[in-house]
Amino acid sequence: MRVVAIGLLVGAITAAIAVLIPWLPDQASEEADWIDFVFWFTTVICILIFALVAAVTLYSVFKFRVRPDDDSDGPPIHGHTGLEIVWTAVPAILVTAIAAVSTVALAQNESIPKDHLTVEVTARQFVWSFKYPEYGGIESGMLYLPKGRTAELRLTSLDVIHSIWVPEFRQKQDAVPGTVTKVAVTPTKTGRYPLLCTELCGLGHALMRTKSVVLEEAAFEQWAREQRAPSAAGSAG
Ligand SMILES: [Cu+2]
What we know:
The protein is of the alpha+beta class. The protein folds into two domains: 90 residues; 116 residues, Cupredoxins -  blue copper proteins (Immunoglobulin-like, Sandwich). It is 42% helix and 23% strand.
């Protein structure tokens, strides 16, 4: 019992240190909160279980090791019903809890408000392109988004499977040829963030990067107007 308590204590201290150090990239979307919560929820469980198992293992290795002069057989122990029930029930509860938390996080992050901005994302080897149907179909090589408004990214691919990821937004979604996948992002901070392909898609995969630029709503509208202006004037842009 004391070993278990020591294991859990070490685990709790380690978990606290892990949670307090800012390892993850900045959070720049509303969806990031839930994703980070699921991440830490799972990680803390892993740390506690690892510390517990390591404590019991180390204790057993030292306490029950064979003495140099001991040639006898060990005692004929076969199983321990109580212990087996515990180590079946506890993981079952933990896995169920992780599934429940993940389900809530997914449901929250997949609910898209009516007044969202639609961005059609097309991936191909090895370029991203972003189209804004509500703004006259303007296209951009960078993902411009207004702060505070949910954007629904509708993804497709022209060749192989790609996957869009902006670490600061946390959200990640595959772009699959022949179908349209969706993912929501609600930026909370203006700035420029790296946007990358996170599905190995060929020789140029590592170069399949661009930026996501989050602007204040007014600045975004102005950017969209500027993009439309050249084509309205008839220039090739
Ligand atoms: Cu790719």
